[in-house]
From TrEMBL:
The keyword Transferase does not apply. Keywords: Cell membrane, Membrane, Transmembrane, Transmembrane helix. The keyword tRNA-binding does not apply. This is Lysine transporter LysE. The chain crosses the membrane at residues 33-55, 67-84, 104-129, 141-167, 179-200.
Amino acid sequence: MSLEFLLTALVIVLLPGPGVVYTLSLGLKAGLRAGLIAAFGCTLGILPHLVAGVLGLSAVLAASATLFRAIQIAGVLYLLLMAWRTWRDREAFSVEAAEDRPAAFGIVLAAIGLNLFNPKLPLFFLAFLPQFIDPLDPRPILRMVELGAGFMGLTFAVFAVYGAFAASARNLLIRRPAILVWLRRSFACAFALMGLRLALAGR
């Protein structure tokens, strides 16, 4: 695994996206544990795309405009659902809600959904990873799995830092209800804007 790949993948992982917003929101809402679980769930959401890439399904997706659009629409709807739920959940960042530990399964499931319906990820595994695989490599599939695992490891590490940062800021913000309301609405708007951007994005 080359340094060039690690640096390029790190830049991609650092870019804000739905997973980052979700991890930050959980870290603020319920602390470090929830933020780390969200990071883990977002990382697991990459696994189906890696498997699809290894099996060659990414190539099918890249060749089928209809299939790509269907996944894109599903992603838009999911992001808008997250926006609506975040906007309406008035207790999301309240002291009372923060004291209760949200179910780990629910956090992971929502996080997986964010990446599962991201149509850019399969294209990432189709267009990005092959650049770092030698055409003469006798085991290209094993090499792709190795690079995908490295990408997932970077994703978890970066998202865990995001979650830890949010959890550390939570204690400072929890005493300021007005700021927490603003944060909740900001996260809702962020999900909605990402859904709009995905809806307008081309292939």
